[in-house]
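Request: Could I get any protein with tokenized structure?
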Amino acid sequence: AVVAKFTEGSDPVEQVSIISRGMSGGVTVYLPEKEKVFLYKKQLLAWLRTGVAGRASEEVFLGDISTGASNDIEQVTQTAKEMVTQYGMSEKLGLIKYGDMEETQHLGYTYGGGKDYSERTAQLIDEEVKRLVDEAYSYAKKVLKERKEYVEKLVTMLLEKEVVTKEEFDGIFAK
């Protein structure tokens, strides 16, 4: 939530909760200010940065990492891969769509489709995906370290109330 607050292109935080739901240890809910038809690179980069912020906060504040961010890592990796292979958002690989559209998703597995590019291109795709995720992670850690006091205020509120509303969250930064 704090990383989102200091990330251009991020949707506003609507609610933060530490109540566990399913496999999630808590959740930050974002509410776009208006309906989106297209996503811009700035918004996708913001999503990557907020997507890795949970793992980054473990490292920054606990000095260790857990398996808790596994789904976040999966989603961030998929988004970065789509930015590179589907949306032409990599300067290194350019405005080319990589991969075959003839693929089917079923129960979390991809069937069909093919790789219509060389091993060299596959290596470049992997490097670009890693670069995007690594840069997002570095950005999140930097924000968390620089804005530590806000994280601590939010944690205190969450430990008292378990759920922090948009107004309460925004109040942390009002001064």
Notes: The chain has a mean pLDDT of 91. The beta strands are 13-17, 27-30, 103-106, 109-112, 163-165.
